[in-house]
Amino acid sequence: MGVAAATGGCLCGKIRYRSRLPYRYAVHCHCSMCRRSSGAAFMTWVCFPRESFSFTNEQPAVRRTSAEVHRAHCPDCGAQIYMDYQDSSTIDVSIGTLDAADAIQALDNIWVSARLPLLKGFDSDLPQHDGFSPRT
Fold first, then answer.
1. Each residue of 88-124: pLDDT tens digit?
2. For residue 31, what are the contacts with CB-CB under 8 A and spacing of at least 6?
């Protein structure tokens, strides 16, 4: 999967993080909440073991966006850093914040019934799920 340790941060550099362990999996999420929170057509989340993830300088601003989800972003540049489901064993990091994002390979498309029409056929070689990935 990933390298032994992963690092990343926001656009302005105020927020930096590290994972001591490789990522478990990565998914393309097509749900409307991810679209609205990011302003993008979909979000690619890279899922790291919760116990291995830490911030190395400033803490992000964290907001509850649903009953089960917190999302974190840089209070200065606004970059979305992670999404955290309260009962999950992973922290789901926005792929664009990783220093070595080009080393990541997504394994699933999730919430495909909400996918925008312009993305029909996108990564169709990956498993398609109308809900969470079975890897969670």
1. 899 999 999 999 999 999 889 889 999 999 888 778 8
2. 110, 111, 114
CA distance 136 to 132: 7
Name the pairing type of β-strands 108-110 and 128-129. Answer: parallel
**The dihedral sign for the CA sequence 119, 63, 52, 133:** negative
- Length of the chain in terms of residues written: 136
Residue range 40-70, pLDDT digits in tens: 999 999 999 999 999 999 999 999 999 899 9
Radius of gyration of the chain (CA): 14
- Pairing state of beta strands 53-55 and 16-19? antiparallel
Class of domain 6-129: alpha beta
H helices, E strands: number in the chain: 1, 11
The domain ranges of the chain are: 6-129
**pLDDT-derived band of residue 132, with 50, 70 and 90 as boundaries?**
confident
Residue with tokens 């550099």: 13
DSSP E strands: which ranges in 74-114?
A: 80-85, 90-94, 108-110
